[in-house]
Amino acid sequence: MASQLDHQADMLLRWKSSLLVLGDPYSVAAWKHGATTPAHVTGLALPAVLWCITAVVQVMLSSYGYWTGSIPVTLGVLVNLRKFDLRGNGFSRLIPSSLGNLTRLDYMDLSSNSLSGHVPHEIGMISSLTMLNLSRNSITGSIPGIVGNLTRLELLDFSSNHVRGSIPPSIGNLIRLKSFNVTNNKITGPIPGSIGNLKRLELLDLSVNEITGPIPGIIGNLERLELWDLSSNEISGPIPGIIGNLERLELWDLSSHEISGPIPGSIGNLTRLELFDLSNNQINGCIPSSFWKLTSLTTIALGSNQMNGILPLEVGLLSNLSYLDLSSNQLTGSIPPEIGQCRALSFLCMSDNLLTGPIPQELGNCFDLSDLDLRRNNLSGTIPVTLAKLQELYNLNLSYNSLSGGTSFSVNTRVSLDHNMDTCGCMTIVYRRREFSKVDSKNKSLGMVSIWNFDGKIAFQDILDATDCFDEKYCIGVGGYGSVFRAELQGGGIYAIKLLHSAEDCTDEKAFHAKIQVLTKVKHRCIVKLYGYCSHSKCKFLVYDLIERGSLASNLQEEQLANELDWLKRITIVKDVAQALSYLHHDCGTPIIHRDIKSSNILLDCDFKACVTDFGMARKLKKHSCSSWSTIFAGTCGYIAPELSSTMVFTEKCDVYSFGVVAMEVVMGKHPGDLLLPFFCRTEIHMKLNDILDKRIIEPKSDEEKDIILLVLVAFACKSAQKPGQQWSRYIKHSQTESAQQPSS
User: Fold this and answer.
1) Which of 50, 371, 690, 739 is the most exposed place for a label (fewest CB within 10 A)?
2) Which domain of life is it from (predicted)?
């Protein structure tokens, strides 16, 4: 009973810390642990105490994960509430209609819970709302038409629910809207013409639904649009020429529809366009000449259409291009030598076309090329020897052509030259299936298995043998994207094998391979080495260095292990993580955002050196920019930067925020919880260092105290500021200087 009361007391104190109260008429600020028996507070009846404090203007319980049950109906009495943030918890059941009483509310985030049922029509009464985020729940029903009353909205997010029905025409009333996201639902019907009224819209994500009908010409009114994802719906008809008005567009995904007709020439106006995906449609005609003037393009995906014509010389103008897929079309003519001017090219697929002539030797100038697929064409001549000099090339498929000759390729290159005139090549790191009973006992033809970026001595079967076909007894951890197994191979090496949950989830296989290719180049003493990726038709896994001591989280949670982490070790661990992040953001060629920095993704070796791991969430950044283009939610509750709830754009600052949380966790020995709340980060809030230090280890020495104070200041700076600021930069320089002074191991 006593422990239950203590738990209730903790819950009350967390609620207290989340509240911002005008006047504090009930002396909530005076509540202290042990000052009274929790049972005296009306048996933890939150409606009787907290929900009835009408002076409350802010409730913030985001990213804790502590809270379950339903949102109290009596919430409606908080008539002065302006900000209501419950994201990242376990709230379930219905959204109470009493929310309609909160007429002063301007910010409501209920994302990442387990809420169900319909959105109450009373939501439409909160006319002061500027931000409404209901994403990642189990909400059903349709988007209520009364949402059109929320004319001050700037962000509206229903993504990743079970919403049905059509987008209501009243959406056109939201003329201040900047971000509208309904991806991953079951929305039907056409795109309403009223959407053309949303002239301030910057992000429009309607992907992964069942939307039908044409692209309305009125879409040309959205001249501020930067990201438009309409992929995986049932759109038909042509692309209207008025899309040339969208001159700010940077990402445009129209893949997987029944869109027909040619690409309009007005696309040449979209000079900021970086990603264009029109794959898996019924596009015909030639690619317009104006298209090749879009020199900002990094990704072009036009595969699986009915386009004809030639690939022009102007393709060489696309100096930023890294991904080009023109496969499964009816392109004719030869591959122009000018394609060798696309020096950033890492993926080129032109398979299943009608191309003729030789493979240009200038492709050897594309030094980052990792995947070249020209199979099923009418190519002739000798295979250029320049291809053998491409050190990053891991997949070369020239089969079903009329090529001759051959050359010796890198041990890391997978080569297919089948059905050519007279070719010989070196196919490496390819293994036929042996017995794989525990993964699939029925399928007798599982296809190829390949491991890239390995030393060639470790085969697929060796890993199966070392883990007894991924038997549970070798499992040393389970995460959101896979289970980790310990594999001790016959050659003496010990590796961590991350078996990805469900091979079917890797739908964009080629893009995933390209990403792995980048990550294998990451080399830093504080980042776990990723050796490569194994692709099998029934399982996929990543091969890492094994870091024996386990995660920082487990070392902090277990009493005995935590006692071994003295203050000097903890200070060094935080510096290691800071250096790893600085390297990813600034020093590894293409900048990378990790997106899921947390204590369980930081491993400790036998010498307590910290190594950052798990790049399942990682994304490449475009050069000269601080933002990535993913609008898919990622990260872990309790470590996520607050601005993600409104922008859904991952930047370096998101990693820095998460670093601040981890730094405080190292100091406190546990997740900082309430200290993440904004009013704890204000400069006028003072606290004694001893009040937050982990009490399980001896007090720090005087010189260690200085480092801890600096660490805490940096942690708060990382969590509170809009920009990490000079504190973060100075800390990086400080940690790098001290690291350079230490003897290398």
Assistant:
1) 690
2) Eukaryota
